[in-house]
Amino acid sequence: MNESNPFSGADAWMKFWTDAMSKMPGAPGAPASAPPPAPALSPSEMLSKMQQTFLEAWTKGMDQYMRSEAFLQMMKKSMENALAMRQQLDEFLRKTLHGAQAPSRADTSDLMQFLHTFEDRVLDQLAALSKRVDDLEGGAGGGGRTGGKTKQGGGR
Amino acid sequence: MSAMDTLTQMWSAALSDTQKQWQEALTKAASWPKVIDAAQRVRVGITPGEPVYKEDKLRLIHYNHPAAPRYETPLLFVFALVNRPYILDLKEGKSVVQHFVRGGFDTYNVDWGVPSDGDRFLDLEDYIERYLHHCVERICERNGVEKINLVGYCMGGSMSAMYAALHPERVRNLILMAAPVDWSSSEHPLALWTKEEYFDVDKMIEVFGNAPAEWLQWSFLLLRPVDNLVGKYINFYRNMEDEKFLEDFFAMETWLNDNIPVAGEMFRQFVKHCMQRNELIQGKLEIGGRRVDLRNITCPVLNLTASADHLVPCGQSLPFNAAVGSTDKEAITFPAGHIGLAVGSKAHRDLWPKAVEWLGKRSR
User: CB distance A51–B231 less than 8 Å?
Assistant: First the structure.
């Protein structure tokens, strides 16, 4: 994280103005014997250059801000608030749906968790059975294919 | 020259410039029907193919070949879980898939599908040991081979590396594209944002179930907010009369806005074990009770990184080559961005023909 100079993004902007000013004919500091100045920029070219410089400076500034402690803390707080709000909304909906004797998202989620755990238990049992069959058949390695809990089986 | 003459000259230049600007604005206004037409005509995923295997929401796509494949070893693309895989086959002239299909490889792509609330408990083991493994088994069975070539992009690259470490007997060659494997440096904004002290992934998954697509999309947009929210549209305004530009712009926009949620448990494990604890590169990651040891990977490895990658900096990918057990390994850092690696014109001209050649030499 670079927080030592949070405004260094403005350097590009400053450079632009310094360059632009120094190119002006008769500008203070412009050497009298300097070669003839480059053709003056048209207003639209000037605007386009200003826009580009501004965007570059903004990009640098934003990049530094995105890495700053202030942004990280702000992001953390916003996330916490969003999660708390969402939890309250979920709780309200759960109670309302239960009041209407309808299943809520939490119920579906619990059911899915149950099925997932159930699947794991069945797979464990199958792996154990497979190992026993391999052992009984005297297979080398005793169930190397299916040893331990695995989700490898069951493809269609 | 008097001051009056200078002023007159400046005034006349400004007047002619304003006139030019108005003309340009009118031309742009007149091109809006073309813009709308281009937006409606957008077509992504151009190589014809059909699903040859389905499991839950996953589909394994097999691409049609104009002629019989030249190489015996088939090729499987593994894309990340956060977007759709057609970025690898975006449009004519910007399709990585086409390079390999035309190069003579029997090519497959995994479409993970869009997880719903019911998929929140799918974890790393489900994705690697079940879905990905079943796809590989299906391809081996279909093609009558023992091994396949794996090409993993972004998070799909990390997953391919995990798979190759767990099943080295099934992988003949491994190509990684901008694949993060080492999260030890927290210089990168994404690595900073996901640090344990700032991001409670457990709480997030407990509340949301899956990692929401919109949340993921905003996180990616915020990595380069000025470019993504301002610069892109200025560039669009400047080039909106150019039909080729419009075609590319809308194809990319279609893909960028096609984010999908990531299954909750998978996201939690990936963030916690890989991004926060950096277990993959250290050989500490466990999937289904088995340790993922990258030294088990002994097949030839091609590690492609992008020098201007804002999402996966080269420092997160290059340590992979030192961690694997392979002797035939190569790393190419290409001057492109994260997505430019897959869709950039330069990459399609200079990088992909080389990658096809690299794989061809090792697939005979």
Answer: no
Q: How far apart, in whole angstroms, are the C-alpha atoms of residue A50 and residue A62?
A: 18
pLDDT, tens only, B241-294: 888 899 899 999 999 889 899 999 999 999 999 999 999 999 999 999 999 999
Flag if A87 and B207 touch (Cβ within 8 Å). yes
Instruction: Return d(Cα B53, Cα A65) in angstroms, integer.
Output: 47
Residue A116 located in a structural domain: yes
Tell me which of B134, B135, B201 to substitute to probe the interface with A (most A C-beta atoms closer than 10 Å).
B134
Residue at A61 is within a domain: no
Q: What is the pLDDT of residues B1-19, one digit of tens each?
A: 677 888 888 788 888 888 8
Which alpha helices (DSSP H) does chain B contain, by range? 3-30, 32-41, 96-102, 124-125, 133-143, 155-166, 189-193, 201-208, 213-221, 225-226, 232-239, 243-256, 264-269, 279-282, 314-317, 319-323, 340-343, 345-346, 352-361
Note whether B225 contacts A62, CB cutoff 8 Å: yes
Of B257, B279, B259, nearest to B124 by C-alpha is: B279
Identify the pLDDT of residue B43.
82
Angle CA(A18)–CA(A20)–CA(A22) in degrees, nearest 5? Answer: 65
B184 in helix, strand or coil? coil
Identity of the amino acid at B1: M
| CATH of region B44-224+261-361 | 3.40.50.1820
The full set of domain ranges for chain B reads: 44-224+261-361
- What domain count does chain A have? 1
Q: Which residues of B are known to be catalytic?
A: 154, 309, 338
Cα three-residue angle A145-A151-A152, rounded to 5 degrees: 45
Q: What is the residue-averaged pLDDT of chain B?
A: 93
pLDDT tens digits for range B98-152: 999 999 999 999 999 999 988 999 999 999 999 999 999 999 999 999 999 999 9
Looking at chain B, the number of H-run helices and the number of E-run strands are 19, 10
Residue A142 forms part of a structural domain = yes
CA of A137 vs chain B CAs: smallest distance (Å) = 25
**Does residue B51 sit in helix, strand or coil?**
strand
Considering the domain boundaries, does residue A149 fall inside one? yes
